[in-house]
């Protein structure tokens, strides 16, 4: 219950100042959004705590948000509301499960004609690239080494991680978030095993934008590897400026939810639980955007990562996609 700027948590009142000190929750998310989350998740959280002296939904949400935004259980809110680190851990688990359950409602790729047309217009305003439905990338979130000798989670940079394939729109809203991939998989392998790949195989209009790590497909436009003409250079510039949206979006997610920021450490969980926490933060990102928060308010500035271009054998190349890209370059960038 919220009364005169205070949130009632069982027998405890926590004021706006306390919430601010708890992982900067107030500045990151705002009281109205935190209140919205409590009501959204209340039924699921109440069902998980039907026992004597159960921790209230308000406490569970605040404890979990404190972990997501700081990456640590040793938070000010734990002291303020008088619950142990073990209790905070249970709160994080409960809230994460409740948020993952909400993923299909908050992360959706609408492809009806009106949604497509709106997407085309919004992306074209960015840098003039036509008929874009979304921008695609695969990102890595550091985790502790699994207990087994499994090396499938060791990524190309040498640390253990889970891979997350993201697609977002021009506003930074996530259209797809598949968070369960072992970090050792190549981006192309993740793509080919993903739900979005199956969904777009027979796409006859519009495309995603992917960087040089991905294969060119009729539904996936990639940069020209060695541009020669002014039109090809212009195409690449427009592609880079548009594709950057997905990079900015994930940087903003990492900054708002610091438990995902590999520069601050790594998630101390199994790959499965780490993947759930990652998906929960993606749900929170979309829910916050839909509640009126800015996607990139919390974005941190980092130098862009340089990627090696995908080397394709001749038999792997898609001649139809190559012809389609040539037509696109001639028709819109020459």
Report the count of strand segments: 8
- Main sheet: strands, sense, barrel: 5 strands, mixed
Distance between the termini: 60 Å
Can you give the helix content as a percent range?
A: 40-55%
Residue stretches low in confidence (pLDDT < 50, at least 5 long) are 1-23
What order do the SSEs take from the amino end to the carboxyl end, as H and E?
EEEHHHHHHHEEEHHEEHHH
Neighbour order of strands in the largest sheet: 6-5-4-7-8
Question: Structural class of the helices, strands and pairings?
Answer: alpha/beta
Shape call: globular
Q: What is the average of the pLDDT values?
A: 85
- Integer-rounded radius of gyration: 22 Å
Number of helices: 12
Q: In percent, how much strand structure appears in the residues? A: 5-15%
